[in-house]
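pasting input
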Amino acid sequence: SQQGEEDPQALSIQEGENATMNCSYKTSINNLQWYRQNSGRGLVHLILIRSNEREKHSGRLRVTLDTSKKSSSLLITASRAADTASYFCATGPNAGGTSYGKLTFGQGTILTVHP
Amino acid sequence: DGGITQSPKYLFRKEGQNVTLSCEQNLNHDAMYWYRQDPGQGLRLIYYSQIVNDFQKGDIAEGYSVSREKKESFPLTVTSAQKNPTAFYLCASGAGKLFFGSGTQLSVL
């Protein structure tokens, strides 16, 4: 089942602008992660935020998590043409044992950055 | 180089045929996963394995089978029972944070 719902489905911006993508989920989570996928390739892990964290930074990436609203956002600052890709949020279940590492992915946001 | 290798990159299946997708990792991860991705969609979990000789069904296991005889290898067989197999298949490994292969595009002839 698809836990994450991402918004917008597609985003088109100019180089240098900031890009914000949102993700909502339904059930209790242990962590939320963001991944990037270039066309026809595998996914690459970008950042992980745990359920007890509210904000996390990594280079030009800023992720926020609001567990009361069951939502997260990914901000890419000063975007570049090379940032053009699909971005997915994924939630890790709030359960141990055999569920650990079993992620549920959203449908993704397609980001296009124009030079 | 450490990573996950999927092969082949492209695969064609004839009706009634079983095909096997290969996934090998040298990251020393216990857990491995198979996901299916349809155009414009997110990933859906087919099967996962937390340890050698053990695996569990994911959300869409019908028409698929797996084995985990070695820690490094987690092959996926798409059986003839899978009536709509055309998709992009991704293998991953890890615990929490996942590392992905480059995918196999499966099409039906």
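fyi The mean pLDDT of chain B is 94.
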